[in-house]
């Protein structure tokens, strides 16, 4: 009679332990747009695979980047992506902290109280900065060089005539 | 008398039905999906950033939201992101974004069409809802050569111009310099005498 609830309890524990990820490891591939001459925003993308204790995992994940919460979408791999306007885009490493269901609930609570829980794992997206055209246009450089040459020639002529 | 009562009853029923309709809000999740190109120009073999924003304007969470964009055929190279993803659960009034970066391999006019979204409304319905994103529409993918002609710094062209402008400056200077040297030599020999 008491066997059935015991079975259910075992099954429940099984689900819980399957959801919490032990020894998480990620292999990630990141991409950011580095040529901003045709863009209005910089895109940051990271695609990663998660394994828990050597086994590939497919648990729901949530991401936190610099205090902002983002969703983690799932295709063949997990993906976190966001965009920033070119003027607001920052160079360097962007740390994507990943949380599971439990961690995310704690994180939301902590956003009100203060202390953040430790993330399950994290991924780094490096943005080396984007090229948005030359600092000085070459036609302007050519015009400046021309003016300098003319100035030198006129001063030399002045010296010779005097 | 009976007829008029029956009529009143009917009116009452209709009113009741409409009141019931007003009282029980439409328990459904509704997704609005926008597909945007975050580009000033779309150029062959240069990055095109596509951002999908999904808003749930309904009053129930949308579950098992799947986004699929099959509009990029063999003419595009997906360099970042996935075109077929599961967005999971979107709470009411919540929004989710997804970004993909592609590079067009050919130039010319191209019609950027909609992405497909499927989801189930609420927790217990099995019925799959289907929706489409907004369409960015037809755009011109500029050839890389044309873009380069307009926006590259043209360093090689300007270097060629600089080299070509050197002889007209240098030849008169050298002629003048040699005649000056000769004149000075004559002047020096006269002085020494």
TrEMBL record, chain A:
Record keywords: Disulfide bond, Endoplasmic reticulum, Isopeptide bond, Membrane, Signal, Transmembrane, Transmembrane helix, Ubl conjugation
Subcellular location(s) of the protein: Endoplasmic reticulum membrane
Protein's membrane topology: Single-pass type I membrane protein
A cellular-component GO term for this protein: endoplasmic reticulum membrane
Domain of life: Eukaryota
Main location: endoplasmic reticulum
Family annotation (InterPro entries): TRAP-delta
Pfam family, one: TRAP-delta
Extent of the signal sequence: 1-18
The keyword Transport is annotated on this UniProt entry: no
PANTHER family per record: TRANSLOCON-ASSOCIATED PROTEIN SUBUNIT DELTA, TRANSLOCON-ASSOCIATED PROTEIN, DELTA SUBUNIT
Stated family: Belongs to the TRAP-delta family.
Assembly information from the UniProt record: Heterotetramer of TRAP-alpha, TRAP-beta, TRAP-delta and TRAP-gamma.
Function: TRAP proteins are part of a complex whose function is to bind calcium to the ER membrane and thereby regulate the retention of ER resident proteins.
Protein name, per record: Translocon-associated protein subunit delta
Source organism: Allacma fusca
Automatic annotation (TrEMBL), chain B:
Location relative to the cell: Endoplasmic reticulum membrane
Membrane topology of the entry: Single-pass type I membrane protein
Regions crossing the membrane: 155-176
Swiss-Prot/TrEMBL keywords: Endoplasmic reticulum, Glycoprotein, Membrane, Signal, Transmembrane, Transmembrane helix
GO cellular-component term (any): endoplasmic reticulum
InterPro entries cross-referenced by the UniProt entry: TRAP_beta (IPR008856)
Signal peptide start-end: 1-19
Pfam families: TRAP_beta
Role according to the record: TRAP proteins are part of a complex whose function is to bind calcium to the ER membrane and thereby regulate the retention of ER resident proteins.
Subunit architecture: Heterotetramer of TRAP-alpha, TRAP-beta, TRAP-delta and TRAP-gamma.
Family named by the database record: Belongs to the TRAP-beta family.
PANTHER family registered for this protein in UniProt: TRANSLOCON-ASSOCIATED PROTEIN SUBUNIT BETA, TRANSLOCON-ASSOCIATED PROTEIN, BETA SUBUNIT PRECURSOR TRAP-BETA SIGNAL SEQUENCE RECEPTOR BETA SUBUNIT
Protein name: Translocon-associated protein subunit beta
UniProt source species: Allacma fusca
